[in-house]
Amino acid sequence: MLTKLQKSKQIEIGKKLIEESRSLIFVDFGGVSVKNLESLRRKLKEIGAQLKVIKKRLLRIAFEKRNLDFNPEQFELQVGTIFSPKEVYEVAGSISKSGVKILGGYDLELKSFFDAEKVKFFGNLPSREILLGQLVGMIAAPIKMLMYVLKEKSKMVDTK
């Protein structure tokens, strides 16, 4: 049982982390080995995110102090919160491969909640650089084909 001082300290930590974050992802870490959890923490540290376990009730109070309308007590399981200064899709990829169960996500800028399926979907998307490369390839392909056709047509005209 936490003392009143410990609880207020956890609320302040939660409030500070919410202020510094752009997105939150809620995970259930029950049944995950310590090795996998440490591996997840290392991956998160590399991208500037961190996993914290704060009681759901205390986290709700921290949300209320930041004037955010979200209740983490809706989750029935143990909840670990990943606080990230990046977008949800940038963090979700690392989490989905770690073995923890994703419960949902929250975008602090949009003030909107994402269910677990949407967060997993974001995690499976390729990175921004890969998507831009694919876009350039799709735009360049018709131009390349046109150039090929024109080149072949010019060869046919030269032979006549």
Written description of the protein model:
The chain is of the alpha+beta class and 160 residues long. It has two domains: 122 residues, 2-Layer Sandwich (Alpha-Beta Plaits), CATH 3.30.70.1730; 34 residues. The chain is elongated. Strands 2-3-1-4-5 form a five-stranded antiparallel sheet, sandwiched between helices.
| Strand and helix order | HEHEHEHEEHH
- How many DSSP helices? 6
Main sheet specs: 5 strands, antiparallel
What structural category arises from helix and sheet content?
alpha+beta
Given as residue ranges, the uncertain stretches (5+ residues, pLDDT < 50) are none
How confident is the prediction overall: mean pLDDT? 86
State the helicity in percent bands.
55-70%
Query: What gross morphology would you assign?
Result: elongated
Content of β-strand: 15-25%
Rg of Cα set:
23 Å
The CATH superfamily of the largest domain appears as Ribosomal protein L10, N-terminal RNA-binding domain
**In total, how many domains does the architecture comprise?**
2
CATH architecture annotation of the largest domain = 2-Layer Sandwich
> Would you count the extended β strands for me?
5
* Strand arrangement across the biggest beta sheet: 2-3-1-4-5
